[in-house]
Amino acid sequence: MRRADVSRKTKETSITISFDPDGGLLRIATGLPFLDHMLESFGRHGRFGLSVMAEGDLHVDPHHTVEDIGIVLGMAIKQAVGDGRGITRFADATIPMDEARAAVALDCGGRGYLVFEGSFAGRETGGIPNDLFEHFFYSLVHQAGITAHITFLGRSDHHMCEAIFKAFGITLYRAFQKSGNESEIPSTKGIF
Predict the structure, then answer these.
(1) For the segment 8-44, what is each residue's pLDDT rounded down to a tens digit?
(2) Any residues with CB less than 8 A from the CB of 103 and at least 6 apart, and which?
(3) Which of 106, 114, 104, 116 is nearest to 84 (CA)?
(4) Three-state DSSP class for residue 180
(5) Distance (Å, rounded) from C-alpha 54 to C-alpha 48?
(6) Angle formed by the axes of helices 63-81 and 131-144, to 10°?
(7) Are 56 and 31 in contact (CB under 8 A)?
């Protein structure tokens, strides 16, 4: 079983996340309705079991909550994949949403790195500053040990953002699929 349960409490946030790459229920409550919608899209299209319960200093702004959810989700993903034995490791997907399109390519091989190419039209979406979406994925991939290339275009910030989260979920699902050799770590080094 590859399920992971991770909690993290700081002076700014309290986050509890359960992640199961093999499926399950979705329960999302971050205090940020637009982020809830994005994480639900990520979980639904990734076919994950995902619970995200977050309380943060939203009276200040959304930054700490968004960042810390990315950190804890990355920790849960890393814990769930373990040593990577038997996974496909590499995957990509391109997802359209009306006029918008997002492409995500992942290497779940233990090295965290983010390339985030595209630009939003406005300053914020759903009450969240648009620069925080890149920061969310940066925090996630660095904790998870995933190299992610995310590119996007479009006119509607909502559509671009949702296409990104859907594409990331679908790609992560594909990368975590069993390769057929449960004992093999897909690396020439023999470890991630």
Answers:
(1) 999 999 999 999 999 999 999 999 999 999 999 999 9
(2) 92, 93, 94, 95, 149, 150, 151, 152, 167
(3) 106
(4) coil
(5) 18
(6) 30
(7) yes
Question: What does the pLDDT average to over 52-78?
Answer: 97
DSSP 130: T
Query: Between the CA of residue 163 and those of 42, 59, 131, 151, 156, what are the distances in Å?
Result: 9, 28, 16, 10, 11
- Asked if residue 100 has pLDDT above 70, the reply is yes
Q: Has residue 188 got a pLDDT over 60?
A: no
The reported pLDDT for the residue numbered 187 is 62
Return d(Cα 170, Cα 48) in angstroms, integer.
10
Beta-carbon contacts of 189 under 8 Å, excluding residues fewer than 6 positions away, are none
